[in-house]
Amino acid sequence: MKNRYQIELVDWANPLMLSERQLMRGWNIVDLVNLGKGKNIAEAQLPFMCSYSSSAALSNVFDTGNYNTELQWIESGSYTVPPPKPLLIANPLEAGAFPLLLFLHGYLLYNSFYSQLMQHIASHGFIVIAPQLYTVAGPDISDELKSTAAITNWLSKGLSKLLPLNVRPDFSKLALAGHSRGGKTAFALALRKLNITTNLKFSALIGVDPVDGMDKGKQTPPPVLTYVPHSFDFDMAAMIIGSGLGEVKRNLLFPPCAPKGVNHEDFYNECQKPAWYFVAKDFGHFDMLNDCTKGIRGLATQCICKNGESRKLMRGFVGGVMVAFLKAYLLGDDSDLLAIRDRHEIAPVELKIDYFV
């Protein structure tokens, strides 16, 4: 089943230029969107927490949602019940109990590079937790697996202490997601690789352009893909988001960032139902990151992969389908997901869709 369509998003605010150290500490630009009109926050206002709001009466999943949100940087070791790793948390400010999304960053990236995507999701009524799993790492993801499990086990002990008093995490509604190598790590944890388990149950799994290595036969340890159709054995719904340009070389100097044989297509082929598959045809592997990703690592995201025309469009698409999927499988409301499938809710990118439920 192939559906293709396009639309323009609202014009968001331009990001501030922040130093790499500030990016590592979570000093990231936050879009202030009020019916399409954005404005910047002065850097002095963003020491450890920042927020934005939207007054839209009705919410499209591809636009900013109805909740005011804040963004918090949490250092490990600095609280009564400290998290095992530093965290970036995006949460609604209004009172209520909210589902949780644990989001794992890509290879050698900072969690702060995803702050705009995180706040998009949080504005629709979710608490998004993004750990900084490492700053330097080799090919083996074993340590990331152990750290992700430790963070998951910490959530019920320490997360509530970091949120506003009227904001309550609903630990019975927990999803796991990751981008690139983080997507591989998310699937590896769901598959109980290295016999690692958690004391909280995940109910939904998302791979954002997941990558299992350099090429088929060159998977990084522990390998996730088996190349046996529908072989993934986990008891939850899964969604794979792919980039059409991820498997294309930017130039002769760099390999593709999401090579065929170890990319989104292969992950989807091994999913069991229910599974959803969305591919943004004309966008690249890093196009869901913040508009501004400074420092050497941020510059690399602009240079080593073939990119699409606009991170804003891709980020709106990724955030929107993630929200629709989470609403369907954490909250039991599949109206947005079905509307995207049936073209009633229009995505901001040219799109390929497949699914089996």
Descriptive notes:
With 357 residues, the chain is an alpha/beta fold. Helices cover 23% and strands 19% of the residues. Strands 1-2-3-5-4-6-7-8-9-10 form a 10-stranded mixed beta sheet, sandwiched between helices. Helix 2 packs across helix 7 and helix 3 (142-158) packs across helix 4 (181-190). The chain is globular and about 50 Å long. The two termini are 13 Å apart. 50% of the residues are buried. The model is unreliable at 1-58 (pLDDT under 50).
Helix content: 10-25%
By secondary-structure content and strand pairing, the structural class works out as alpha/beta
Tally of helical runs? 8
* Envelope shape: globular
Number of strands: 10
What is the terminal-to-terminal distance? 13 Å
How much β-strand is present in the residues? 15-25%
Strand order in space, largest sheet: 1-2-3-5-4-6-7-8-9-10
Mean model confidence by pLDDT: 86
* Main sheet properties: 10 strands, mixed
Low-pLDDT ranges: 1-58
The topology string of helices and strands comes to HEEEEHEHEHEEHEHHHE
C-alpha-based Rg, rounded? 18 Å
Subcellular location: Cytoplasm, Cytosol
Pathway: Porphyrin-containing compound metabolism; chlorophyll degradation
Organism: Crotalaria pallida (Smooth rattlebox)
Keywords: Chlorophyll catabolism, Cytoplasm, Hydrolase
